[in-house]
Amino acid sequence: MPLRLSIISLTLVLSGCALDGRQSFMDPRGEVAWLQYDLFMLTVYVTFGIFIAVGGTLLWTVWRYRERVDDDPNEHPPQSHGNPLVEFVLIAISIGLLVIIAIPTVSAIVYTHGMPDEPDSLLGSYYHGDMSDGAEEEVLTIYAYGWQWWFSFEYPQLGIVTGNELAIPKGKVVRFELRSKDVIHSFWVPKLAGKVDMIPGRNNWMWLRGDEAGYFFGQCAEYCGESHAYMQFRVEVMEDDDFAEWVEQQRQTPPPPQEESWQDFVVLAARAPEKLVDEPAVRGAALFYGRGACIQCHAIKGTPAAGLLGPDLTTVASRKSIAAGWMEHHNDDFTINPERQYENFYRWIRESEKIKPGNLMYHVSGGMRDINLSDQDCHDLAAFMMTLRPDSL
Amino acid sequence: MSTATSTAPLGAEKADENRSLIGLRRPDHTTGLADWLTTVDHKKIAIMYAIFSLAFLVIGGIEALIIRAQLAVAENQLITAEVYNQLFTMHGTTMVFLAVMPLSAAFFNYLVPLQIGARDVAFPRLNSFSLWTFVAGAIILNISWLFQAANLLGWFNPIDGRSDIVPAVGWFGYAPYTDTAYSGIGTDFWILGLQVLGIGSLAAAFNFIVTIFNMRAPGMLMMRLPVFTWMTLITSFLIIFAFPPLTVALGELMFDRYFGTSFFRVEGGGQPILWQHLFWIFGHPEVYILILPAMGIISEILPVFSRKPLFGYSLIIFSGAVIGFLGFAVWSHHMFTTGLGTVGTAAFSLLTMAIAVPTGVKIFNWIGTLWGGKIRFDVPMIYGLGFIWMFMMGGFSGIMHSSAPADSQQHDTYFVVAHFHYVLIGGSILALLAGLYFWFPKVTGRMWQGKLGHWSAIVIVIGLNWTFFPMHYLGMAGMPRRTHTYLEGTGWQALNFAVTIGAFILAVGILMFLIDMLRTYRKGVPAGNDPWNARTLEWSIPSPPPVHNFDRTPVVKARDAFWLHKFGTVDQKIGSVDPGAHGVHMPSKSWMPLLTSSGFLVFGIAMAMKSAGVPLMGYLAITGLSITLIGIYLWALEGPGGYHLHPEGEHRPH
Amino acid sequence: MSAATEVTESQEHVPTGMHPKKLMMWLFLASDCMFFGTLISTHLIYRKIYPDVGPDPRSIFDIELTTGSSFILLMSSLFMALAVSAIHKGELKSFRRNTVLVMIFGLLFLSGQVYEFYDFAVNKDFKLTTGTFGSSFYLMTGTHGVHVALGILWLGSLFAYSYTKHFKAETHAMDVEVAGLYWHFVDIVWIVIFTAVYLLEYVSF
Predict the structure, then answer these.
(1) What is the ipTM for the molecules in this complex?
(2) What is residue B571's predicted lDDT score, i.e. its pLDDT?
(3) Residue C14: pLDDT band by 50, 70, 90 thresholds?
(4) Whole-angstrom distance, CA of residue B22 vs CA of residue C121
(5) Which residue on chain A is closest to B273 by alpha carbon?
(6) B–C interface: beta-carbon pairs under 8 A
(7) Hey, where are the domains in chain C?
(8) Residue B28: per-residue pLDDT
(9) Using a CB-CB distance cutoff of 8 angstroms, which residues of chain A are in contact with residue B409?
(10) Tell me: the pLDDT tens digits for A346-392?
(11) What's the Rg (C-alpha) of chain A?
(12) Which residues on C lie below 8 Å from B642 (Cβ)?
């Protein structure tokens, strides 16, 4: 028994480091997560109380009624069969304790299943850029799509699309519409809210509110295939003006590396590649729109790349990770480390199958497995990727 | 008739008057492989269930150890993601269906006829059929490993080009991932293995219910039955009602995969969530199927080692029945994150909380049994106390899950993994090990010696806690389930490393237990009828029992019949029924159950091969079903058989 | 001891008063209830909660034909009851005659099913793969049809067996009765299916 207690306290000590970790639900930073945390702690206290009471009784009973060495083995203790009063009282107490948990539970279920009615959370009250008709009176609604093995995020009211990293305004209710493009996935950012599944054929939704600005970690929480472990995402909670700026950045089209327009560039790269400037990013762009066949899956806003099967790459270089959060390149203060970023782009293009086994960029027919890219090609594409950031960054 | 085995009956006769319609004769081997393959003796069948289940416990355990080795350090690549996914799928499926369920079946088989004072079960050949069908299902699931190896060597290439030949869909196989668009023939092995296993379980359930209702000895009223037999009865009813939805779900999935239906296919209008509902309507009662027999075992052991009756017998039985009943009402608590809606979520949350009440009642009653007793700390009691403690902890995390909003953070994390391992290992496995320890002397006639039993119990309990307690924290720290690896920045590594150490400690404990079992089997001292001074009928006969169990059918006067026979008043002593001139009627052996089950084996493998694109497999599958049909016909036609024993050695005229 | 069923000895003392084979059949039917219940639930869920855009059942069903074959199946149960009654009275000839009638009517029902499926698949383009309606309709009625076919096979076996020297009315009456229970169950399941699948389409709510 003492051995077991010391083991448990050892793990408590060890665990101290993990509970304030970046994906811990014991460190809520959003209203829904706080509500769920409070409910969880209530169950912890109640069960801990029961543990002390019942466990203590068990320990005491075992000690008190143990057979002594000098006991006569032929003498039996009184052969009692039960005590209905004791049973009744214990059942009543059990029910009472469960009622203590049940009432806040039902209340929380009702609260989280309805949209809170808050004028401050209507888009028009904090965002003043372009938006779709009628959106001023609506709460910001983000469509989150789960794919094998990445997330896409669309903001129809604001006309923007991004992949794997999304931003929301601080202190405002945000509604997520959760969909899946293939198998069941789950949308979970523990510090902001509990998870809701993305089920094909079903229109699940949830709301949450980020109470403090910051960069929060999310992960798919429903087994979805070979690279389920590598399917993560990020939520950035921003002040209102930072959010407005972010939205503007997502709307920008990066300039073509050469020529006046992307159309001209693509035509030039196809017809007269010898006229291209001999720099990595330019060569990379030519590959992107040409032999690399990237445009069959990826999109870059305002350019001939309009693929819908992979993450939107318009602002990919402003993201602090790629490969659905698996390859990180940010510093502790969440600024981007350009060397690591370049390295990640290069490695992902060069050997995505080793990083995320089964990934469709590699395996889809006509995908990376079928395309022969040299090492230099991969470097060039990585260089091109590095240019895909909004001007102001 | 040869009498090479210790269970050979005195004065037995051949069943030669029972040649059947087509000249078949029932086999009567008493030794060797043919004896074991044709036996209908519930005791031998039980031993086979136990040996298979312990083997699969070890196999499932090795699968777990590899998983833990992979997770011990962040960003580890000890095994590939695909192999990892296959391992957790097979670990879960193996432990649930091939370890805990058959080990429980071993106890049902061995004990129920003895505890009710009967010769065997109601349908002995059907009992044998259940065993061999279980074996067929186990083979179908695990033969996929061989095909995977063949694939690695380049000898076997499924037509879909996928490499998940060992199933990688998780033990509950959510659609649409199980569709042909996303997973390979491993899913087919999984479907067919489970279907076949289900047939075996259903047949056993029917058998045990009829046995318990119809074959009780005179005076063995329902309310005098040992609690283990009661739990067997309730569990059997759960099986009858829980398995058909699984059968339908698996069948619908099979039709989607093989025949292009749209039960779970979104493109055809199907709803993947239907799979979850159907699976969990089976799946939740299934976990009660896994725990009720264990609770029955504990309810037998605690009174013996406290030397007083079970506290609140009626309420323990009633609460078992309530748990069984409510168990069908809570399935969607596995689906709290699927968007059930306000009413659905609240209803299932409240019902799940409600089920804690009868469970709590049992714990109170077990403690009440200890209270005022004289507690001996023999090994079964150590396991029993460990069970109460560990199951209670598992129950607490269950209560934490029952609150749906809180659960939306815990679901699909290591918090759930902690919960169900506490109730399954701390609950089911500890109780089953307790039962093995307790009844081993009865089954083998050998008694345990020395302290290895105590030490293995302690090491197992330490290993269990060291492995699974930190997992609560991992879940809280945000680690999802079924993930091949994790980034170093998550901070989960220290806990994962600690967990892995615990897993190996647990493995050592299990190994110690198995060594002790083997050692005792070889060299234990003779146990005698009643080495523990116990309370129920099985302890009134020799260890090991003769093939016919009771020389004379007992007449029972009260609950705890054997205890009162030993220490009660004169009119509480167990009476007996004179067997009469024709002696004891015993069931004959048969090849037909094995034959019938083998058809399923052929069918299952053939269907998986059909999925792989191997030609002519459809015909082989039909052949498999035909073998089963032929087996059934021969079974019916070989006649009822039966022979007589005169255990008291008297030669009376017929 | 004579070639009796395995439990003659204990039959007199059986606490439930019900022969084990009969008790077992009741338990099996309970599980089969859950089985068909799940299939029918799947069908109703897909018709009422997630209706698909496929064909309108009313344009596919030939309700007169199906009503006719349902009646035939019901009549087969009458003959089954007569067969059980006959065997209990030891009237072998009557038992055999009624059993053959059950089989004939069962085969008529199955022919109706086969014709219906053929008509749907070939003339009305309503196949197993036609959306969720096709999936659940064919799996459910097909499973029921297999149950009927197995029942016919069982009855045929009993019929043939009754001509052998091993068959004795008193000892095998229970086997016939158990087959009868199964047959009646299959009939009742059809009534539920007929109502839930066919008739329900003609009632609007």
Answers:
(1) 0.94
(2) 87
(3) confident
(4) 43
(5) A199
(6) 132
(7) 19-49+67-202
(8) 85
(9) 25, 33, 36-37, 40, 190, 194-195
(10) 999 999 999 999 999 999 888 899 998 999 999 999 999 999 988 75
(11) 28
(12) 1, 6
Provide the chain B residues 133-192 that lie in CB contact (below 8 A) with chain A: 168, 170, 174, 176-177, 181-183
Is residue B498 less than 8 Å (CB to CB) from chain A?
Answer: yes
Chains that touch B (3 or more CB pairs under 8 A): A, C
Cross-chain Cβ contact C31/B241 below 8 Å: yes
The β-bridge partners of B375 are: A66
CATH of domain A262-386: 1.10.760.10
pLDDT at B579: 78
Residues of chain B with pLDDT under 50: 1-16, 651-654
Report the residue of B273, B337, B352, B468 to disrupt the A interface, i.e. the one with the largest count of A CBs within 10 Å: B337
Name the E strands within B493-616.
Answer: 525-526, 553-555, 575-577, 584-586
Contacts of A105 in chain B (CB under 8 A): 346, 349-350, 353, 402-406
Both tokens of residue B127?
């009992």
Residues of chain C in contact with residue B241, where contact means CB-CB under 8 angstroms, are 30-31, 34
Is the pLDDT at A17 greater than 80? The verdict is no
Pairwise CA distance, residues A294 & A271, whole Å? 18
Is residue B346 within 8 A of residue B413, CB to CB? The reply is no
Q: Which residues contact A63 (CB under 8 A, 6 or more apart)?
A: none
- Please list every residue in chain B whose beta carbon sits closer than 8 Å to the beta carbon of residue C28: 206
Strand, helix or coil at B585? strand
**Strand-by-strand arrangement of the A204-209 sheet:** A160-163, A150-155, A140-147, A173-180, A204-209
Third-level CATH fold of A123-251: Immunoglobulin-like (2.60.40)
Q: How far is CA B417 from CA B97, B376, B437, in A?
A: 17, 33, 27
Helix, strand or coil, per DSSP, at residue C42: helix
Q: Which residues contact A221 (CB under 8 A, 6 or more apart)?
A: A186, A187, A188, A195, B337, B411, B412, B413, B480, B481
User: Residue A15: which pLDDT band, with cuts at 50, 70 and 90?
Assistant: low
pLDDT of residue A8: 57
Fold of C19-49+67-202: Four Helix Bundle (Hemerythrin (Met), subunit A) (1.20.120)
Sign of torsion over alpha carbons C191, C197, C200, C205: positive
Quote the percentage of chain C above a pLDDT of 90.
79
Q: Cβ contacts of residue B608 below 8 Å, gap of 6+?
A: B140, B144, B147, B185, B188, B189, B192
Task: Collect all residues of chain C within an 8 Å Cβ-Cβ radius of residue B256.
Answer: 135
The structural domains of chain A, with segments of one domain joined by +, span 2-67+78-112, 123-251, 262-386
CB contact under 8 A, B122 and C20: yes
CA angle A150, C132, B165 (to 5 degrees): 50
Q: Does B521 touch chain A (CB under 8 A)?
A: no
Q: Sorting pLDDT into bands at 50, 70 and 90, what band is A20? A: confident
Task: Tell me the domain boundaries of chain B.
Answer: 1-209+534-654
Q: Which DSSP string do the residues of B71-85 spell out, in sequence order?
A: HTSTT--SS-HHHHH
Are B399 and A47 a contacting pair at CB < 8 A?
yes
Nearest-angstrom CA–CA distance, B174 and B84: 17
Q: List strand residue ranges (DSSP E) for chain A, in order.
A: 140-147, 150-155, 160-163, 165-169, 173-180, 185-189, 193-198, 204-209, 214-220, 232-238, 321-322, 327-328
Q: Using alpha carbons, select from B506, B477, B511 the residue that is nearest to residue B67.
A: B506
Report the pLDDT value the prediction gives residue B24, as an integer from 0 to 100: 78
Contact by Cβ (8 Å): C122, C146: no
Q: Which two tokens stand for residue B579?
A: 């067997």
A2-67+78-112: which CATH topology? Helix Hairpins (1.10.287)
Q: What is the pTM of this model?
A: 0.94
Do the bridges between strand B553-555 and strand B575-577 make them parallel or antiparallel, or are there none, so unpaired?
antiparallel
Asked whether the beta carbons of residue B20 and residue C131 sit closer than 8 angstroms, the reply is no
